[in-house]
Design brief:
Strand content: under 5%
CATH topology: Methane Monooxygenase Hydroxylase, Chain G, domain 1
Structural class: mainly alpha
Low-confidence stretches: none
Radius of gyration: 17 Å
Oligomer: single chain
Length: 87
């Protein structure tokens, strides 16, 4: 355990930050799963609407440093490819 005051504060901040990041990452994954679920159901219009929301969450996560920008681009590309393959 930290003995110095600044280290104690940093430990507190790290706990809060981790909880926030876990929540954001979970939300991002949930919206990606919604896109995949609507693709599986064969509903293209719902899939496209869910894709817009998922892209927003992916871009936000990448800009905040939660995930790498290339990872966000990879997920967006794969989701979009699945939607386009529904034709």
């Amino acid at each position: 355990m930290a003995n110095i005051q600044s280290a104690i504060k940093r430990a507190r901040q790290a706990i809060k930050r981790r909880a926030r990041n876990v929540n954001k990452r979970s939300t991002m994954r949930t919206f990606m799963k919604k896109v995949l679920a609507s693709v599986e159901a064969g509903n293209k219009t719902v899939a496209q609407e869910n894709y817009k929301v998922a892209v927003s969450h992916l871009d936000r996560a990448a800009s905040q440093g939660l995930i790498h920008k290339n990872k966000a681009a990879r997920h967006k590309s794969r989701l979009n490819a699945k939607i386009k393959a529904m034709a």
